[in-house]
Amino acid sequence: MRSLVATTNDVTIAICRLILGIVFFVHGAQYTLGWFGGYGFRGTMHFFTTQLGIPAIFAALAILAQFLGGLGLIVGFLSRIAAFGIACDMLVAIFKVHFAFGFFMNWFGNQKGEGYEYHLLVLALCLLIIVKGAGALSIDRALSKETK
């Protein structure tokens, strides 16, 4: 457990973790609760399983990874696990959906879908958190100080 929550008091990592957590909590809240114009859990499950062909168990895991992973990153609790879940979700999104549309996002609406550049940025931030931990101002930091 100690190595899972071990982290430094790095503020830069904490800022990256917090921003990533907010982004994924908001997306997860769309998927789970229907907030921010989302479809809620049932609607998202329906879309993921029927339109994208994702098996129900993996669709549910993706939704939970974004919602609970985002929340975990915001408070800095089990941040490595949260970042790993989000990274897995992004890898599936790249290869299942976005790779076919190329690298670039669809800023001008001239592609049939979104590319994977955003997902690569998310993967880089997740890798930072998986390797370095949650950083300052996190529950992980408080727990790692207690276990020493």
UniProtKB/TrEMBL annotation:
Q: What is the protein's membrane topology class?
A: Multi-pass membrane protein
Question: Which Pfam families does this chain map to?
Answer: DoxX
Q: Which UniProt keywords apply?
A: Cell membrane, Membrane, Transmembrane, Transmembrane helix
Where found in the cell?
Cell membrane
Q: What is its main location?
A: membrane
Q: Name one GO cellular component term.
A: plasma membrane
Q: Does the keyword Iron-sulfur apply?
A: no
Q: Where are the transmembrane segments?
A: 12-33, 53-78, 90-108, 120-139
The family annotation for this protein states: Belongs to the DoxX family.
Q: What is this protein called?
A: DoxX family protein
What is the organism of origin for this protein? Alloacidobacterium dinghuense
